[in-house]
Amino acid sequence: FDDRDGWIWFDGKLVPWREANVHILTHAMHYASSVFEGQRAYGGRIFRLSDHSRRLRRSAELLGFEIPWSVEQIDAACNEVLKANGLEDAYLRPVAWRGSESMGVNPKGTEPHLAIACWHWGKYFDEEKQHRGIRLDIAPWRRPAPFTAPVESKAAGLYMIASLSKQHADARGYDDALMFDWRGQVAEATGANAFFVRDGKLITPTPDCFLNGITRQTVIELAQKRGIEVEERAVWPEELESLEQMFVTGSAAEVTLVQSAGPWNFEVGDLSRQLQRDYDDLVNARQA
Ligand code: PMP
Question: Among residues 71, 88, 119, which one ends one of the domains?
């Protein structure tokens, strides 16, 4: 992925894609002192851009460092790099990390850095699957407790278990994995939040040990606009049998329908389809 044409915004300036490098003794590489974002641009407009920039700064703060650019400056940098690459429909990946100015577990003496890349990224799951429904494995790893890691941070370190679970699911022929949390409650997929439908109601796990995704919040608003009741609460696996529909949400995954999760099967139903369309209309700035 590093050998291609294009521009990456790196610590305040645009550098050629192939030259956006860091030193091997970068603190982040050894001690996971890195946070990132992921957002999509539709027709040149980055959806909920400031919310992503704000979360990036907050993620870094939770890891004890401050990004030396304001939300407005990060927003402007995102727009700049999108334009420089001549892209309108794209995925943007801001990443902030502690550098190689000092070495050791103690991050003292390291400097914060920020880079933003963007590229054309089609559907996270292929288009047909997004509508027909993906198949989820059950992850072998659980989301950690809030007293084990700063779970509200979109920290690279927390993606170790997501990446392991995704690799495990992929090797077993699944599209992704459903992760439970440290208590055994249903949490989320490896890169997207989970929603269920029963009796015309939307049910979604309380985000107390995983990201309260920006897409998740958007979908809750879209549901409420349609007068659909939304229950945010603990979801236990015993209940999955009785839940009728499932979908996952994320900036990359958008609204993706789910066919099955482990032994539990779901129907691809109207309510899920409706919210998928509403989200699509909203990000493309068409009126729902
Ligand atoms: N959970 C995880 C683990 C994720 O990686 C993402 C994607 N950022 C989400 C949830 C959804 O977050 P958002 O809707 O803000 O993209």
Answer: 119
Ligand 1 pocket, residue 189 CB under 6 Å: no
Is residue 100 within 6 Å of ligand 1 at its C-beta?
A: no
For residues 256-265, average pLDDT: 98
Domain end residue (candidates: 54, 86, 119):
119
- Give the predicted TM-score (pTM) of the model: 0.97
Residue 287 confidence (pLDDT)? 52
Please tell me whether residues 115 and 141 are part of one structural domain.
no
* Active-site residue, selected from the candidate residues 154, 166, 201, 225: 154
Question: How close is the Cα of 59 to the center of ligand 1, in Å?
Answer: 13
User: Catalytic annotation on 154?
Assistant: yes
- Pair (179, 70) in one structural domain: no
CB neighbourhood size of 20 (10 A): 18
- Domain assignment present for residue 42? The answer is yes
Ligand 1 within 6 A of CB of 214 = yes
User: What is the b/e burial string over 120-137, where b = at least 16 CB atoms within 10 angstroms of the residue's CB?
Assistant: eeeebbeeebbbebbbbb
CA dihedral sign of residues 95, 101, 102, 108:
negative
* CATH code for the domain in which residue 168 is found: 3.20.10.10
164 and 84, same structural domain?
no
User: What residues pair up with 10 in beta bridges, in sequence order?
Assistant: 13, 115
Ligand 1 centre from 157 Cα, in Å? 14
